[in-house]
Write a structure and sequence with these properties.
mainly alpha; about 65% helix; elongated
């Protein structure tokens, strides 16, 4: 695994240098000044969600589908890996590819969590105010 040399610049310095070196390049691109604003809006709205459907809808809005945060980040990592390969950094390209695969796994897990949440909501009893069931074979005095 590649790492910074003890005598060389640390991670903060390397990131600072990269931002400085890429400033002109980035200024020419149509980038949002706050790419995570949609995710933050869904996170903030989650406190107001009162039903499983609302929770699921916010999660899906933020994380599901090809044009959302998780898959877009996966696609970015794949593009970075491809670029690393072109530049002759095969080992780094493979690491970016493996990391993008983790986002695929997270996407599938989020999908299944959403289905589980919705299924639970539709199979849960609607009236939970009734008496608590007594276990078979137990005596009410044992409680």
């Amino acid at each position: 695994m590649l790492s910074t040399d003890e005598a060389g610049p640390g991670s903060s310095e390397l990131r600072r240098r990269a931002r400085r070196e890429a400033t002109a390049f980035l200024q020419g691109l149509p980038l949002s000044p706050d790419p995570a604003s949609a995710l933050r809006a869904c996170t903030d709205a989650m406190a107001q969600a009162t039903t499983p459907a609302e929770i699921h809808a916010l999660t899906e809005l933020a994380a599901a589908g090809e044009d959302t945060g998780l898959i877009t980040l996966r696609n970015l990592l794949r593009a970075v890996g491809a670029r690393c390969q072109v530049l002759g950094h095969a080992q780094l390209a493979e690491r970016y590819a493996r990391t993008s695969d983790l986002l695929d796994i997270a996407d599938r897990a989020l999908f299944q969590l959403g289905i589980d949440l919705l299924a639970t909501a539709h199979t849960a009893p609607t009236d939970q105010s009734g008496p608590v069931p007594v276990l078979a074979g137990s005596d009410a005095g044992d409680i």
